[in-house]
Design a protein that fits this description.
86 residues; 3 helices; 71% helix
Protein backbone atom coordinates (compact mmCIF):
# COMPACT_ATOMS: atom_id res chain seq x y z
CA UNK A 1 0.00 0.00 0.00
CA UNK A 2 2.85 2.37 0.78
CA UNK A 3 4.27 1.86 -2.71
CA UNK A 4 0.95 2.77 -4.34
CA UNK A 5 0.58 5.83 -2.15
CA UNK A 6 4.12 6.94 -2.96
CA UNK A 7 3.49 6.50 -6.68
CA UNK A 8 0.18 8.36 -6.50
CA UNK A 9 1.73 11.32 -4.68
CA UNK A 10 4.71 11.33 -7.06
CA UNK A 11 2.33 11.45 -10.05
CA UNK A 12 0.45 14.43 -8.67
CA UNK A 13 3.58 16.34 -7.68
CA UNK A 14 5.23 15.67 -11.06
CA UNK A 15 2.13 16.86 -12.97
CA UNK A 16 1.97 20.10 -10.97
CA UNK A 17 5.72 20.67 -11.29
CA UNK A 18 5.67 20.02 -15.04
CA UNK A 19 2.72 22.39 -15.45
CA UNK A 20 4.68 25.21 -13.81
CA UNK A 21 7.86 24.40 -15.75
CA UNK A 22 5.92 24.49 -19.01
CA UNK A 23 4.27 27.71 -17.91
CA UNK A 24 7.67 29.42 -18.11
CA UNK A 25 7.76 28.77 -21.85
CA UNK A 26 3.98 29.21 -22.28
CA UNK A 27 3.36 25.58 -23.27
CA UNK A 28 1.40 24.48 -20.21
CA UNK A 29 -1.87 23.90 -22.10
CA UNK A 30 -0.42 21.73 -24.87
CA UNK A 31 -0.83 17.96 -24.55
CA UNK A 32 2.33 16.92 -26.40
CA UNK A 33 4.89 18.07 -23.79
CA UNK A 34 3.17 15.97 -21.13
CA UNK A 35 3.11 12.91 -23.37
CA UNK A 36 6.75 13.41 -24.32
CA UNK A 37 8.05 13.95 -20.79
CA UNK A 38 6.13 11.05 -19.24
CA UNK A 39 6.89 8.66 -22.09
CA UNK A 40 10.62 9.37 -22.17
CA UNK A 41 10.84 9.62 -18.39
CA UNK A 42 8.92 6.40 -17.91
CA UNK A 43 11.08 4.57 -20.44
CA UNK A 44 14.24 5.74 -18.71
CA UNK A 45 12.95 4.89 -15.24
CA UNK A 46 11.91 1.33 -16.16
CA UNK A 47 14.73 0.02 -13.98
CA UNK A 48 12.72 1.16 -10.94
CA UNK A 49 10.47 -1.85 -11.47
CA UNK A 50 13.31 -3.72 -9.77
CA UNK A 51 12.00 -2.30 -6.49
CA UNK A 52 8.69 -4.15 -6.85
CA UNK A 53 7.89 -7.55 -5.33
CA UNK A 54 7.91 -9.36 -8.67
CA UNK A 55 10.06 -7.28 -11.00
CA UNK A 56 10.32 -8.10 -14.69
CA UNK A 57 13.75 -8.81 -16.10
CA UNK A 58 15.54 -5.62 -17.06
CA UNK A 59 15.91 -7.13 -20.55
CA UNK A 60 12.18 -7.86 -20.95
CA UNK A 61 11.28 -5.79 -24.00
CA UNK A 62 7.54 -6.40 -23.73
CA UNK A 63 7.49 -5.25 -20.09
CA UNK A 64 9.45 -2.13 -21.04
CA UNK A 65 7.00 -1.42 -23.86
CA UNK A 66 3.92 -1.77 -21.63
CA UNK A 67 5.55 0.32 -18.88
CA UNK A 68 6.46 3.07 -21.34
CA UNK A 69 3.07 2.94 -23.11
CA UNK A 70 1.28 3.24 -19.77
CA UNK A 71 3.30 6.34 -18.96
CA UNK A 72 2.46 7.76 -22.40
CA UNK A 73 -1.24 7.22 -21.65
CA UNK A 74 -0.74 8.95 -18.29
CA UNK A 75 0.84 11.92 -20.11
CA UNK A 76 -2.05 11.98 -22.57
CA UNK A 77 -4.60 12.00 -19.75
CA UNK A 78 -2.78 14.64 -17.69
CA UNK A 79 -2.24 16.85 -20.74
CA UNK A 80 -5.87 16.46 -21.79
CA UNK A 81 -7.16 17.27 -18.33
CA UNK A 82 -4.97 20.35 -18.07
CA UNK A 83 -5.88 21.51 -21.59
CA UNK A 84 -9.59 21.25 -20.79
CA UNK A 85 -9.14 22.80 -17.34
CA UNK A 86 -8.48 26.33 -18.58
Amino acid sequence: MVGYLFHFITCIVSAVALFYLLRIIQREYLISPYVLVYTVGGGILFSLTGLSEQPPAITDGAAWFYWTAAHAVFGLIVGGLIKNWK
